[in-house]
């Protein structure tokens, strides 16, 4: 059983979302911490309440 990082419920009983936080020198995105959430709602609430997105930025370049 995997508990939701946000609410503690069993993620397998829902529509889980798994997030990997990798180190800058990681070869694979999964080389680091894993966070599991019941669904997008728990991930969103966790992100808002813990302020983890402050100061971050995404770079995306569309392919022609």
TrEMBL record:
<protein>
    <recommendedName>
        <fullName>YHS domain-containing protein</fullName>
    </recommendedName>
</protein>
């Amino acid at each position: 059983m995997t508990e939701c990082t946000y609410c503690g419920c069993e993620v397998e009983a829902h529509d889980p979302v798994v997030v990997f936080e990798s180190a800058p020198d990681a070869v694979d995105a999964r080389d680091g911490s894993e966070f599991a959430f019941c669904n997008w709602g728990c991930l969103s609430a966790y992100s808002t309440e813990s302020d983890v997105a402050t100061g971050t930025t995404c770079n995306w370049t569309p392919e022609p």
